[in-house]
Structure formats: structure tokens, C-alpha cells
Amino acid sequence: MIKIVLDTNILVSALWTPAGNASAIVNLIFTDKMVPCFDNHIINEYRSVLHRPRLSYSQGQVDKLLKEIIDRGYSVTVTPSVVEMPDESDRKFYDTAVFCSAFLITGNIKHFPKDPLIITPSGFLEKFKNSL
Fold it and tell me: Which domain holds residue 29?
């Protein structure tokens, strides 16, 4: 199984565009082809962002998605790294990905250090198209 860390923008995009690449990746979690890795800080950010009124996702829709991620995923506790980050608020995603040796899937690659494990949704799907 392939380990992944999902930046919050991937979940927002998956809920916003059900036929898009982000949604395809999230759906792979439901088929047990991907294992999401997360820590409490990541789950808290998911909850906070996805419940914002301006996004207008239903409470049930968000709760179901988060439950699936938590139930099917791998919860870790990481120590913050000292790697220079373009966006400090994204450190939790980077550190979790490094700790788990997981792909960090994000729509904002510029927020992270250059690393082959940091990948866009389209790049991820292209890389694994023959094994999914």
C-alpha cells in the first residue's frame, strides 16, 4: 500500500470537484489502495477548514470523510523539524510525510521544500497510473 499525506487543499478540492484528481486520490483511500498518514494537528486543521461556512459542505459530508481518513489511516506523533519552510503552517504536513516516508500530495508545491515525495495530484496519479 502507498502511504500518503494529504494537504488540506486536496480535501477541499475533492469535496468541491467530485470528478477531479483530488477526489480520485481520496477515493483510493476508500478502496484501501492508499493509507493516509496524519497527526492530530493535521486532523484539527482538516476539521477547522472543512467546517468553514463559506465552503458550505454539509456537516455529515465532512464528518464522514474525516472518519474514513482516521479509521483507514495511520496516526503518528512527530517532532517538528528544523527544515526551512516557505510556509510555516504547512510544517505539520511535511514532517508527517517525512516521518512516514509518505508522498505529500498538495496543490501548493511552492509551500514546501523541494523533495521528490512532494507531488501534485496530477503528478501523483500519473506516477501511479499503472499500479492503481
Answer: 2-127
